[in-house]
# Entry
Amino acid sequence: MATETPHVSNPHLLRDIQKLGAFDVSACFSCGTCTSVCPLSDGTTVFPRKIITYAQLGLEEKILASPEPWLCYYCGECTDNCPRGADPAGFMMATRRWLTTKYDVTGISKRLYGSKLAEWIGIGLLVLLAGLLAFWYHGPIVTSTVALSTFAPIQLVELADWVVLGVLSVFLLVNVFRMYYYTVLRIPGKRIPFSAYVKNVLILPITFFTQYKFASCKKDPKKHWFSHLSRYLGYAMLFVLAVFLLSEWQTDTYYPLWSPIMLLQYAAAGLLIYGLSGPLYGRLKKTENQYKYSHSTDWMFLLLLLATALTGVAVVTFKYTYLPWAAYITYAFHLMLVTALLVLEVPFAKWSHMAYRTFAPYFAKLQALRGTPLAGGSKSG
Ligand code: SF4
Ligand code: SF4
# Structure
């Protein structure tokens, strides 16, 4: 049964969120310009000023109950127009990191986001562990051809793949359930009929596979939308290749270069490299306001993902150019990077945002059906 959300003020809330970003909402004088220019703020989901106000007042439970930080697509329009330089877009990004630490029950997210050292140690340990496993359990090294499945015994790799996937799925599903609890279940109001859950469920695949909200960005909407969509589809294809089609791509067989499995690999690598180039270039050159500050976890995620894509491309290249040692060594590095990427990023850091962003519009709809929307503002500010 839903209970009234307690409105106890947490005096450290703003400081806690601020640790995860570089915005300055103390400069905010609540003019509402950010909300009025935000292309995605609408109806019962009005932001970012409302969320900033919650943070300034220490209303932790209100922020936990808000799907809005996940509805913001970080276009930077609000920051560009803020008369006080408070960087509301950066604030929304930092709030997403803070929420990620709140959904995660293990405390790992908090450590990753809170300390660069913890992040490096976590990644280092996972890379080392995967490297040792590859060293101890690799199969015969065939040098007359490139035999990936003989070098990395497919049964062992598949077993490890499914075990890791199972454990990570449990963590991620628990986190998504906690998001649902905070944003829907705990909100007081009318009971939501089961039919409403079913009727709205299509929002999930539509959001995931189209990323249509990004097309609302005022600045170069097609470029932003396509870059974001490329990353999402690239992640999805990488996931399908690594989990469901592992024995097809990590194989001793040489497929024709234009076979479906090869085309899928080209598409995954191409989409990922294209989708990552925009945010990496933007962060390096600080081309736009929203790229001026990057948390270390942003860099780590983008670089790990890029390195994973590039080592994957290199393995295939070495295989088809008949360079066995180069292919095996690169494949071992690829497995080490994939392990760190999946274990840390899927349930605890940036990759989990993909799930929260996908569920946010669904939970926002369900929350609205409660009949007591949390919205504390209007589009006009
Ligand atoms: S635009 Fe938004 S963040 Fe900037 S001062 Fe106005 S209300 Fe505050
Ligand atoms: S970054 Fe863009 S989507 Fe996010 S709050 Fe600002 S204007 Fe809205």
The chain has 19 helices and no strands. The chain has a mean pLDDT of 88. The pocket of iron/sulfur cluster (ligand 1) is lined by residues 28-34, 49, 52, 82-84, 86, 88 (CB under 6 Å).
